[in-house]
Write a structure and sequence with these properties.
With 96 residues, this protein is mainly α. Helix content is 53%, strand content 10%. Strands 1-2 form a two-stranded antiparallel ribbon. β1 and β2 form a beta hairpin. The longest helix has 18 residues, at 3-20. The protein starts with a helix and ends with a helix. The model has no long low-confidence stretch (mean pLDDT 86).
């Protein structure tokens, strides 16, 4: 068996292992294959398919708006966004 044929056989075996749902060890034992050889071919064939670098896009994240928390001794809490107008907040405070 030449190298191309051997690689094709192992591609099929690795695909069968992946579809089986078994661990590499369990699959190797079930098929009568050396456990180390199965691991070798899995690493060899899957590392060739995964790119070493993946494209990444960096997106800016909007800054979190702080919140204002008003708590009353009776137990209620009022959460407001930190960017509410001061005049509106003053009116709320006078009404409470």
């Amino acid at each position: 068996m030449n190298n191309v044929e051997r690689e094709q056989v192992w591609k099929e075996r690795v695909a069968q292992w992946q579809a089986s749902g078994l661990s590499q060890r369990a699959y190797a034992i079930e098929q009568g294959l050396p456990v180390r050889q199965v691991g070798y071919w899995v690493r060899r064939l899957t590392s060739a398919q995964v790119p070493a670098l993946l494209p990444v896009r960096v997106a800016s994240v909007a800054a979190a708006v702080p919140t204002i928390s008003l708590r009353n001794e009776r137990g209620w809490t009022l959460l407001l966004p930190g960017d509410v107008p001061a005049s509106w907040l003053a009116e709320v405070m006078r009404a409470l």
